[in-house]
UniProtKB/TrEMBL annotation:
This is cellulase. Residues 33-400 form the Glycoside hydrolase family domain. InterPro entries: 6-hairpin_glycosidase_sf, 6hp_glycosidase-like_sf, Glyco_hydro_9. SUPFAM superfamilies: Six-hairpin glycosidases.
């Protein structure tokens, strides 16, 4: 019953990525891609918590949750609500922000007048994360009461459910939520380098600090928050090692500081080969971790992100490129090592949670990997055949087209 918010936030998280994809394939095109991009980014304004700025376009939304954090003597006003709920879950919110930033880094140049709105959407997240990490040794992870909120259908402007804030600390650590926030801050710092150098530096310094905290005080927030996150909502099923490596990889990309690269190398081989996720009925689904990417597991994202770094910085590509290829081969319809299925209409299906989050996150990675492979002038090695990078774009595009057609609504319902 509670996975509803979870499902819906995935749509929110990833709708925008769809929008980004459309810009890449937009040449084929149509107005539809542009319109979908605009609406995907506009959607984030509907999810805003806090004091809304004059630039707010979705004007039926008003200020809300202006006292968030006061119980803990900290300002936690802002950030995003979790889909249809009024809770702020900082773990998936941070992943959303990391992906928004990655999308802008890759595709911002194609976004036209929507670029400014995408930057605003990122900043709405990072301004809040700066507040959530303003006390050294403390990272705020949740604001609101997941159960009370979920049973109460109120708009955030009127809500009267508790706005308790929950933090992880040095004695009750939560490495996944902290490291994902570090990743979001580091990725966003790269986005703002060209627009606001001072802000970019603030984000980067905070990212380094929060990463140190996440690594030094290791533990899962599952153990700290119990039923507030598990088994529904945002239970971390894949462990926190992937977020730590993911954050280190983003910090390495942002700083070129060798110590982050050493960290990635030191830990990459200890990531589990198989991980468990929950399916929609709360049953565990087990899969090869190289093929996983979403708010919970970052594995495939790590390999693809790093596949570009090893090329640009002339580093040993093992095991990143090998695993990034394996990921791509797990998706391609014609691949002998395919581990997803396709509906008769051609929509990708992968068990576990909301299917559209897989469709969108995996399609995004295919597009990004296609670009990186093109830059490296190499094909993707699947068993005994080689796939040209353009094939990855084709597959991603086939998914985006389905999403823009009416049919995908039925898939969701
Ligand atoms: C690299 O990062 C480490 C860890 O944060 C830090 O101690 C070190 O000073 C940094 N090195 C440089 C050259 O900035």
């Amino acid at each position: 019953m509670m996975s509803g918010g979870n499902v819906r936030v995935q749509l929110r998280v990833l709708m925008v990525v769809i929008g980004m994809m459309m810009m890449v394939v937009g040449r084929v095109t149509s107005q539809n891609y542009e319109d979908a991009l605009t609406k995907s980014i506009l959607f984030f304004e509907g999810q805003r918590s806090g004091r809304l700025p004059p630039s707010q376009r979705m004007t039926w939304r008003k200020d809300s949750a202006l006292n968030d954090g006061t119980e803990s003597n900290v300002d936690l006003v802002g950030g995003y609500y979790d889909a249809g709920d009024n809770v702020k879950f900082n773990f998936p919110m941070a992943f959303t922000t990391t992906l928004l930033a990655w999308s802008v880094l890759e595709f911002g140049q194609f976004m036209g007048s929507d670029l400014q709105y995408a930057l605003d959407a990122i900043r709405w997240g990072t301004d809040y994360f700066l507040k959530a990490t303003s006390i050294p040794g403390t990272v705020f992870a949740i604001v609101g009461d997941p159960y009370g909120d979920h049973s109460c259908w109120q708009r955030p402007e009127d809500m009267d459910t508790p706005r308790t804030s929950y933090a992880v600390t040095t004695t009750n650590p939560g490495s996944e939520v902290s490291a994902e926030m570090a990743a979001a801050l580091a990725a966003s710092s790269m986005v703002f380098q060209a627009y606001d150098a001072q802000y970019s530096l603030t984000l980067l310094n905070r990212a380094a600090m929060v990463f140190d905290f996440a690594d030094m005080y290791r533990g899962s927030y599952n153990d700290v928050f119990g039923a507030l996150v598990c088994p529904y909502y945002y239970c971390d099923g894949s462990g926190y090692a992937d977020e730590l490596i993911w954050a280190a990889a983003w910090l390495y990309k942002a700083t070129n500081n060798q110590s982050y690269w050493d960290y990635v190398l030191k830990h990459i081989n200890s990531l589990p080969q198989y991980i468990k996720r929950m399916d929609t009925d709360g049953m565990p689904v087990s899969g090869g971790s190289f093929a996983e990417f979403g708010w919970d597991s970052k594995h495939a994202g790590i390999n693809i992100l790093v596949s570009k770094l090893v090329i640009d910085r002339q580093l040993n590509p093992s095991p990143f490129v090998f695993n990034a290829d394996k990921f791509a081969c797990s998706i391609l319809p014609e691949s002998p090592t395919k581990s997803v299925t396709y509906s008769p209409g051609g929509l990708l299906f992968k068990p576990g949670s909301c299917n559209m989050q897989h469709v969108t996150a995996l399609s995004f990675l295919l597009l990004v990997y296609s670009r990186y492979s093109n830059d490296a002038q190499r094909g993707i090695q699947c068993d005994n055949f080689v796939v040209p990078p353009s094939r990855l774009v084709q597959v991603a595009q086939s998914q985006v087209r389905l999403k823009l057609s009416n049919q995908w609504i039925y898939v969701l319902l």
